[in-house]
Amino acid sequence: MRTRNLLAAIGKTVAVVAMLFWSLFPIVFIVMSSLKPGQDIFAVPPRYVFEPTFEHYVSLWQQWGAFFDGLLNSTIITAGATVIAIAGSTFAGYVYSRNSSRMLDASVLFLIVVRLIPPIVVTLPLFPIVNVLGLNDTHAIMMVLYATFFVSLGTVLMRTFIDQIPRELDEAAEIDGAGRLTVLRRVIVPLAAPGILAVAVFVVVFAWNEYLFAFIFTSTRAKTAPLVISEMIGSIDGVDWGILFAASTVQLAPVLLFVVFMNRYLVAGLTAGATKG
Amino acid sequence: MNDRNIIALSRRGFLGTALGGIAALATQPSWAASKTLNVLSHKVHQTVLGADGGDLLADWKASNDADVFWTTFDSNPLQDRLFREASLGSTDYSVGYMIDNRPTSEIAALFEPLDDYLASDPIEDFQDIAPGLVDGMTVDGKLIGIPVRHATQGLFYNEELLQEAGIDAPPTTLEELVEQARKLTFTSSAGTPVVGMVLASDLAVFPVMFARAFGGDFITGDFQLMPDKDAMVKGLTVLREMFEAGALPRSYATTRNDDQVTWLQQGRAAFTVLPFARNAQLNNPEQSKYPGKIKAVEFPISAELKGKMPMSSIVEAWAMVIPKNAADKDLAWNFIKEVSSKRATLGMALNGNGPVRVSTYAEPDLVAKNPLAEVEAAVLANARGAFPPFPEAARAQGIMLEEVQLAVLGRKPVAEAVDAIVERVTPLMPA
Question: How far apart are CA B372 and CA B362, in angstroms?
Fold first, then answer.
């Protein structure tokens, strides 16, 4: 029995270590490489002990000003898309949770089907339309696109969350004279905050890293950081790996910190309703 | 008690501020140049016009009261975006940069023919621009792009590793190259395992170069598919034998273009084939363990053809084009003329651009700065593209690379792989 427990413990430890290595190695490699002298990045055998240098970060600042413009654009677009997606998902989730009709139930299926459509299918026909509307290369179109792509999933998530809030609380507020909007604002939103944060994490991670929409719909004014990184990779004069890894680290850091900080809400959001009968 | 936040802003105040702001934005402050030229390009094209030596377009901008606004993308996304912009009813971009293996008849029809512009408002000494590059941008008899940059392939070698192996000079025939590559598959004095040669397996450039060393080709400029199958068989057999001997990496199937650079910089390979323009990066002391020791020569032809015909290396060129739906075509042509001038061509070359003018290679400033100028000029004289553009070119290249990999890795006899290329690519060829 003791041997079996010991083997199980060893097995679990090995599995956890393997998973950690699998997940963390690329991140550690990128961050370490951004701090290595250029000659040592791909040295054989690899050098794990080295004198760190910030020369690649300095070069990134000096040679790729567009990357920092891209970061600013990414921040604006991500923030806007998150606000729109949260607002849309919360309103829609509330409606789906508190109302029922044949049409409404059927439209849930539509929300899921929309999510299954490959993005490329909608982006290319949208390009000439967005162009005619004069919205090409604007923050607004990127916010709307990213938010639209996540409102469906966010709505389903928020509905599940709001379903767990007792309807009696709505009714009590209504007896006290609260209208629907007040109930939503004063009762539902505070109690569904973990769900809102879970939706926010999804949208932030998606919008911050997204490439395809940004490539199709931006040029200069709304160009996001992933597009600039792709230019670094595709340099026809040769890739400067140190600068590329420095840019990747700068791009990775905010979203990584955000996700780590929000992790417990994300788990709570994803498991919402999991035990509902 | 009222716990709501009160914002002291009246509706009238809000509307007034908003309308005032919109009006201020609409008036567009007048400190900018009166004209703006939007250019769609790779970042390198912008950099070579402005790095180190200042803005090469400063005088042009001043005399035309114009500013240049660059939108840059990586190569393939750039081409995709350029063709999409040119397909719209109108585009803000008046100049685009196009790679010479893209303009099929359908694509060329989206861009302004430049022959009339050239006749009425000529480019300075246009005949000086390498004719092969001009031909590459002439589609259905119409000139649709003015060449601005080229990348011609050369054979790079690590001089220190050659000396360590007792080799005094780089190869002058393909057979010598194979022999030296075998000899250089060893462990260097630094303790690094070295392979004789590193080549990317996902680019048609390399098998085509080996076939050309025996007088063959993949697809010729006049769309003949593999006019000399024996030459292709010989070329691929050489690659196969090098792989068998360990003179190509075991990871050949997954080796990419960037690996070629890092392997040479790290002393893990003795030879590779790259554009001459990579010389600066390969010898960059901040990245390379062998700064100043990596040299380049022309890729050698086979012994049987040496002295009988020149080696035709592969060149890829970029050209400036004007979309037919562009707003300001005259300003666009004016810009193209300026960038194509002898002064700008030299300035760009000093900033690392592959100059398209033959005369630029003789400029003392360039000769002093670029040790490969002379050899690059000689190779460029006989160089041509890997294959001409046609609608199914990407699929044809994919098939070729698939069969080449099978042959080199020994999973298919070379002759059988060559037959398969012909059989599978034939239906894709233009009628």
Answer: 12
Residues B100, B208 within the same domain: no
- Which of the four CATH numbers 1.10.3720.10, 1.10.238.10, 2.30.30.180, 3.40.50.10320 does domain A64-270 have? 1.10.3720.10
For B147-161, the pLDDT digits (tens) are 999 999 999 999 999
Same domain, residue pair B144 and B160 = no
What total of structural domains would you count in chain B? 2
Tokens of B110: 């989206």
* pLDDT score of B86: 95
A234: chain B residues, CB-CB within 8 Å = 42, 74-77
The tokens 């690996």 sit on which residue?
A: B259
Kindly state whether residue B343 falls inside one of the protein's structural domains: yes
Pick the residue from chain A with its C-alpha nearest to B276.
A237
Question: What is the span of the domain harbouring residue B331?
Answer: 35-151+315-382
Identify the residue whose tokens are 């955000």: A258
Tell me what pLDDT residue A123 has: 84
- As given in the structure block, the two tokens for residue B143 are 């000139």
Residue B209 forms part of a structural domain: yes
Query: Is there a domain that residue B28 lies in?
Result: no
Q: Is the ipTM of this complex over 0.95?
A: no
Q: Which residues of A touch B (CB under 8 A)?
A: 37-39, 42-44, 55, 66, 127-128, 131-132, 215, 219-220, 227, 230-231, 233-242
CA distance A269 to A197: 8
Q: Flag if B281 and A128 touch (Cβ within 8 Å).
A: no
A155-167 pLDDT tens trace: 999 999 999 999 9
Q: What percentage of chain B reaches a pLDDT higher than 90?
A: 82
The answer to whether residues B308 and B320 belong to one domain is: no
Contact A128 B69 (CB under 8 A): no
Q: To the nearest 10°, the Cα dihedral for B57, B330, B76, B383?
A: -80
Q: Are residues B242 and B321 in the same domain?
A: no
The answer to whether B190 touches B268, Cβ cutoff 8 Å, is no
Residues B355 and B405 in one domain: no
| CB-CB under 8 Å, A127 with B284 | no
Listed in sequence order, the residues at least 6 apart from B242 whose beta carbon sits closer than 8 Å to its beta carbon are B178, B181, B182, B196, B197, B248
